Amino acid sequence: MSDGALRVLSYNVHRWGDDRTALARVVRACAPDVMLVQEAPTWFGTRRKRRAMAATFGMRYVAAAARNAILVADGIELGDPLRWRVWRPFVRRRLNFVATQLPGGAVGGQVLVGTTTVAVVCCHLGLHILGRQRELEQILKRCRAFGTPYLLAGDLNEEPDGPVWKRLAEEGLTDLGADAGPTFSSTNPHKRIDGAHLSPTLQGRILPTPASAEDLAAASDHLPMLIEIRV
């Protein structure tokens, strides 16, 4: 952190299952103070995998809920972490095949930006439109519970004309990525389904990602969002 600004990287890392070396180069080039991870590795040895992933970035794994995780750089402390998960609805796909999704949720905590406490919250919403709206209401309730200005960032699984984005605007949050371009897919960016929304008492912007197109395409199926927050 420098000059009272906090660098936050929000990134769906695709379960740490693509080119891990390229992913590490992308994250290290972004040099975040805080990283909000969606689709963090799970299943056997979850914590070990997440600590190992964080180490490749030169960061520490400090909190998680479901497949969301928060990593921090040296010298950054995450206070009062909140973790919560929700069970998602069944999803009907083609050929009348019905499947449930993995549990969703969000994780957040507080950091100091200058002398001001700011909450950072990571989320990954589901594929079902009604489920996303239900998840978002729970997440916003927890964001407000921090009692501080906050950043809410993550994979929204919805484009900006959808109800989730409209609800975020109704909440009075600023859409930092309105002019930042598409975030999915990394090889053919054509959809903006990842968001970064900020309390109106804070200032922020999306910074250019200082990584090569080749590394971005190899690292994950999503593009990262590098966010600068100022009080």
Automatic annotation (TrEMBL):
- Residue runs in coiled coils: none
Tell me which domain of life the UniProt entry assigns to the organism this sequence originates from.
Bacteria
Q: Which GO terms describe its molecular function?
A: endonuclease activity; hydrolase activity
Q: Which UniProt keywords apply?
A: Endonuclease, Hydrolase, Nuclease
**Is Nuclease included in the keywords of this UniProt record?**
yes
Q: Which SUPFAM superfamilies match?
A: DNase I-like
Looking at the Swiss-Prot or TrEMBL record, what is one Pfam family this protein matches? Exo_endo_phos
Q: Could you tell me which residue ranges the Endonuclease/exonuclease/phosphatase domain spans?
A: 9-194
Protein name in the entry: Endonuclease/exonuclease/phosphatase family metal-dependent hydrolase
* Protein species of origin: Kribbella pratensis
